[in-house]
Amino acid sequence: MSELTDLSELAKRRGFFFASNEAYGGTAGFYTFGPEGAALKRNVEDVWRDRFVRELGHMELEAPTVMPEAVFEASGHLDTFDDMILECGDCGATHRADHLVEDATDVDDAEAFAPERVADLVADHDVACPSCGVPLADRPVEAFNLMFGTNIGPGSSSPGYLRPETAQGIFVEFPRLKEYARNQLPFGVAQIGRAYRNEISPRRALVRVREFTQAELEHFIDPEYDDPPLERVDDVELPLYSAAAQQDDGDLEHHTVAEALEAGVVESEWVAYYLGEALAFYEAIGVDMDRFRYRQHLPGELSHYAADCWDAETEVGGNWVEVTGFAYRSDYDLRKHGKHSEEEFTVFRQYDEPKTVERATVDPDMSYLGPTFGGAAGDVVDALEALARRDRSAFDGDAVTVEVDDESYTLPVEKTGFAVEEQTESGEHITPHVVEPSFGIDRLVYSVLAHRHGTDEVDGEERSFLALPTGVAPTTVAVVPLMTKDGLDERAREVAASLRAAGFEVNYDDTGNIGRRYRRQDEVGTPYCVTVDYDTLEDDTVTVRERDSTDQTRVAVDDLADAVDRLVSGAALSEL
RNA sequence: GCGCCGUUGGUCCAGUGGUAGGACAGUGGCUUCCCAAGCCACUAGCCCGGGUUCGAUUCCCGGACGGCGCACCA
Question: Which ipTM score applies to this complex?
Answer without folding.
Answer: 0.88
